[in-house]
Amino acid sequence: MRAVGLHEDVIAVTSRAFATASVLVRSGGEAFLIDSPVFPDELEILPAIAAQAEFNVVGVLATHADWDHLLGRYSFPEAPLGAAETTAARLINEPGAAQRKLRDFDEEMYVTRPSPLSLPGAQKLDTPGFIDIGEKTIELQPADGHTADGMAIWVPWAAVLIPGDYLSPVEIPMISEGGSVSAYIATLNRLEPLVEAAEHVVPGHGGPIDAQRALAILREDRAYLEGLPGSALPLARRTKAQREIHAKNLTRL
């Protein structure tokens, strides 16, 4: 796991699993954890990282309901979970889905966890909308298309965008069950002005990147989606895993 300070109030954490990103955001005496690392040792050490940097975590936010973004309460079990209304609905409508996916991952990777994943009802957040943290306010934007649910998070005073599973330097756009190409493109269009205003972007997978690179990825991803089914994969994302994602995308057109 790697932790990098992007701003005095923002720490980006990248897991060893899928380069999954999580972000600590602070204002005043309060902090949020957005998304989560994956492995138990990463989740165990995260409170110490937060405490050493004086990030008092009072809430956990999830950009969407995929299992690898829902593990934050292993680190902060007393913190309430907040998510977009669409994500809260997905958690209700798919009971046990995240737990089953986590169990499959753990069995494949020989991972033992201290307890089963507990997902109490998420506090529903409006998207578009705002949420206060300390003395400041975070902006929330809807971010569906990858899945049927999701939100992107804009931290204006730090100029950091946390878009969820969009703008990844290591993954092509992935249209999962419930997602759609049209909704994904609409989300990219919605994110574009925020990317242009950002100093850093922290996509769900791949680690933090600067805004110039994120904008280039956004344009590549939009061209890829608009060109389906005949699109070529972006040059830097043509691995076997990305070809498999592309094949699955073609089944969802």
Automatic annotation (TrEMBL):
Family annotation (SMART domains): Lactamase_B
Source superkingdom: Bacteria
InterPro entries referenced in this protein's UniProt entry, alphabetically: Metallo-B-lactamas, NDM-1-like, RibonucZ/Hydroxyglut_hydro
Domain Metallo-beta-lactamase positions: 19-205
Pfam families: Lactamase_B
Protein name: MBL fold metallo-hydrolase
